[in-house]
Design a protein that fits this description.
The structure is a single chain. By secondary structure, the protein is of the alpha+beta class. It has two helices and five strands, in the order E-H-E-E-H-E-E. It has helices at about 15-25, 50-60, and strands at about 1-10, 30-35, 40-50, 70-75, 85-90. The protein has a five-stranded mixed β-sheet with strand order 4-1-3-2-5, with helices on one face.
Length: about 90
Amino acid sequence: MKRIHVIISGRVQGVAFRAATRETAIALNLTGWVKNLQDGRVEAVFEGEDGQVEIMRRWCNHGPPLARVTGVDLHDEDYVAEFGEFTILYNQ
């Protein structure tokens, strides 16, 4: 099992990036979350089977059709199984 934490840069807000991320993560049976950052980037945490997380990592390099990803800052983290589903977090 694997967990990654990513911050995605580029044109990634206002292009349904969070919704597409959630849809893709759910299709891959991953748990975690995705949210917009105030500086225009998107942040996400994914947990699940190694191969499925790897597919999601590769997907983050391009995102949905209207996105223009210019960078992905990725960190491997310890798998902790803390999520029951994959959710979109909204600014508080």
